[in-house]
UniProtKB/TrEMBL annotation:
The modification N6-(pyridoxal phosphate)lysine is found at K187. PANTHER family: 3-OXO-GLUCOSE-6-PHOSPHATE:GLUTAMATE AMINOTRANSFERASE, TRANSAMINASE. The active site is at K187. This is dTDP-4-amino-4,6-dideoxygalactose transaminase. It comes from the Bacteria.
Length: 367
């Protein structure tokens, strides 16, 4: 019996092999491999796609998060409020910048931050709130913007899982002071290695980001901006992303279809697709197809028994990670902690076949 993979990046390469080899060969022949014409064109095209005035390409999504935080004037010792159910990525970026992660619980239905869950976590030391559009669903940003504005803190979107999502008020990446993206190969818009970007409407912030990503230079070999580093999107990855960007909407539509079919197979009962209620919405791009079940481990075993791969995103909330031991011992996030015991990620990628989807649906229907 063939295995149904959780993801299969080789299929995505196969359907675009000729085009991808062509753009890679073009870059190789050009002799320009860093901060060249492919990079510049991608920054322009991606900014347009996400409704932002400026895009700054960087080396990876974690750098994008850290640089976004620095760009809103976060300084060592400042607190950053974020969710604890999004894989430790924001926390890692905050810690690297010398910041203090402070965790808010999430809405029990969407598993996303809301203004109501964030407000109790704000303190006089809060400099920024980072909102992750978890599993590809855009959070309710309007109330969060109002809350942050009234509290005098910056609002940052973590769009690593939501490229191409579009809420009623605008695309993911256009709804806060600054937004970060990851183009890790498994993302909806994936490179062939690590890559990331930061987007903003503020020209001064964009210029600061460009300096920070390249040694803090204000001009070549003139380092004037503190906390600079080397974090650049290379020409090969930019060319690949340019080739893939026009396909993003279609891939996202296929992902939404898959989650909708899983939700229909589950029907009414104790199990649900976490974002099954918005499976048809353009504000959701189904980066991960996540089910919630009170019998998660047994359900996972049933899927494994018939060759269906699964995973858990994410099994350990940030405030329970060993690296934060001693600093978050008193933190209680009941919704986050319960969800970590119930969530299960099912196969979901654009090249998943109808037959494979039906195999998953058959098991879900019988659970």
């Amino acid at each position: 019996m063939d295995t149904v993979p959780l993801n299969d990046l080789s299929r995505g390469f196969a359907v675009m092999e000729g085009e991808l080899r062509g753009v890679v060969d073009e870059v190789l022949a050009s002799g320009w491999y860093v901060l060249g014409p492919q990079h510049d064109a991608f920054e322009t095209e991606f900014a347009t796609a996400v409704g932002a005035a400026h895009c700054v390409g960087v080396a990876n999504g974690t750098d994008a998060l850290e640089l976004a935080l620095l760009s809103v004037d976060c300084r060592p010792g400042d607190e950053v409020v974020t969710a604890a159910n999004a894989g430790m990525y924001t926390s890692t970026a905050a810690l690297k910048a010398g910041l203090v992660p402070r965790f808010a619980d999430v809405d029990p239905a969407s598993l996303l931050l809301t203004a109501a869950t964030v407000e109790p976590a704000l303190s006089p030391r809060t400099r920024a709130v980072v909102v992750t559009h978890l599993y590809g669903r855009v959070a309710e940003m309007g109330p969060l913007r109002e809350l942050c504005r009234s509290a005098g803190v910056a609002l940052v979107e973590d769009c690593a899982q939501s490229a191409g999502a579009r809420a009623e008020e605008g695309p993911a990446g256009s709804l806060a002071d600054v937004a970060s993206f990851s183009f890790f190969p498994t993302k909806n818009l994936g490179a062939l290695g690590d890559a990331g970007a930061v987007v903003t409407d503020d020209p001064d912030r964009a210029q600061l980001l460009r300096s920070l990503r390249q040694y803090g230079w204000s001009a070549k070999y003139h380092a004037t901006v503190p906390r600079g580093r080397n974090s650049r999107l290379d020409e090969l990855q930019a060319a690949v992303l340019r080739a893939r960007l026009p396909h993003l909407a279609g891939w996202n539509e296929r992902r939404r279809e898959i989650v909708g079919r899983y939700a229909a197979a589950l029907g009414e009962g104790p199990r649900r697709m976490v974002h099954g209620d918005v499976a048809a919405s353009p504000a959701y791009v189904a980066h991960l197809a996540v089910m919630s079940s009170p019998t998660r481990d047994a359900d996972r075993a049933a899927l494994t028994d018939v060759g269906i791969r699964t995973d858990v995103h994410y099994p350990v909330p940030d405030h329970r990670q060993p690296v934060l031991a001693g600093t978050t011992d008193g933190v209680s996030l009941p919704v986050t902690e319960l969800a970590a015991t119930q969530i299960l990620t099912l196969p979901c990628f654009a090249e998943l076949t109808d037959a494979e989807i039906e195999r998953v649906c058959d098991v879900l229907h019988r659970l």
